TrEMBL record:
Domain of life of the source: Bacteria
Organism of derivation: Alicyclobacillus ferrooxydans
InterPro entries found in the cross-reference section: Acyl_CoA_acyltransferase, Bact_Acetyltransf, GNAT_dom
Residues covered by the N-acetyltransferase domain: 7-151
Name recorded for this polypeptide: N-acetyltransferase domain-containing protein
Pfam families (UniProt xref): Acetyltransf_7
């Protein structure tokens, strides 16, 4: 397998992400389409302070995507939210998702004390728990959370 590289993008090429939209919809997921639609409309471009969008590429193909926003359910708190993590089926189990979320965590540490997310997918639940997210005492509108200041726990 050729190396996959994760980079932060400021201007998402929507033509590059569209194959991921189609792939995710084959699996019954709607959240990559939502990312695409919100990016196209300008509703969410991951461009505010404390926000970022990361993509994983193998050569010229986008194989994964993950964003960071301020948690919309806690707009005045120090909580960021992992958004729209998706990895193409052919690239799962190679650490691509871990690389994407690691980049989100590094960026989130600059702005937030806690990172939250919501998923109802059992595989995603296992993934997030394996990389350190907790489900105990998750805040409202979240299923998982991660303290970004572990020394203060």
């Amino acid at each position: 397998m050729v190396d996959v590289f994760v980079t932060r993008v400021k201007d998402l090429n929507v033509d590059d992400v569209y194959p991921l939209v189609l792939e995710s919809e084959k699996e019954g997921f709607r959240f990559v389409r939502r990312l695409y639609d919100e990016y196209m409309s300008g509703a969410n471009r991951f461009g505010c302070d404390g926000e970022a969008l990361f993509v994983a590429r193998q050569l010229n193909q986008m194989v994964g995507i993950c964003g960071l926003n301020r948690d919309p359910y806690r707009p005045f708190g120090n909580v960021g939210r992992v958004r729209r993590l998706y990895v193409h089926t052919d690239f799962r189990k190679y650490g691509v998702g871990r690389q994407l979320v690691s980049n989100v965590i590094m960026e989130a540490r600059r702005f937030y004390t806690t990172l939250s997310l919501r998923t109802d997918n059992p595989m995603a639940d296992q993934f997030y728990r394996a990389i350190g997210f907790s489900t105990d005492h998750a805040p409202d509108n979240a299923t998982h959370w991660l303290s970004l200041n572990p020394e203060s726990d």
